Amino acid sequence: MERFVIGGMKHCGKSTHGRLLAAGRQLPFFDTDEELEKFYAGTTGDALTTREIYRKLGEEEFRKLEAAVVTRLLSDDGGRVVALGGGAPGNRFIEPAVWERGGCFIYLEIDPDEAFRRVKEGGLPPFLAGADDPHLEFMRLYRDREQFYRRYAKVIFHAHENASAEENAAALAKEVECYEQQLR
Predict the structure, then answer these.
(1) Which of 46, 124, 126, 135 shows the smallest number of beta carbons within 10 Å?
(2) Is 3-183 CATH 3.40.250.10?
């Protein structure tokens, strides 16, 4: 069964690369943020964005909800590609066994300053918006989260900033194929 889990910092390209990897392998694609929004709407009747859910619930309740969604996606049978929210690998409510049986974890590595630039362009998320120094807080989060990405990673991929999404996806597919060949 082919199952791939893509993790990395916010705005590193998890969804873009995940969709392209899924299409190339003819697998269904799931974005945990989108799945979280659907789950929340289905249980509460409120159609909110992930940011709005985070603001409404607070971090702990949000992480519990995220844990339920990620656990379901990585525990269901069948091949798939799953793009995680940036903080999911460090979510204390997700059992380590979920990551072990979740499939090939791909860490999409990105330069932290480039990641912060992209985050600022998209608008600071709640976990950074209230910080005295959003850049400093982002760098702290990057360091904290990177340890989890590296711990679970079977493949570490650094997208080339001057390449198109399709070119990067093709390079990522080759990295995944190399990993699979090592397992044989």
Answers:
(1) 46
(2) no
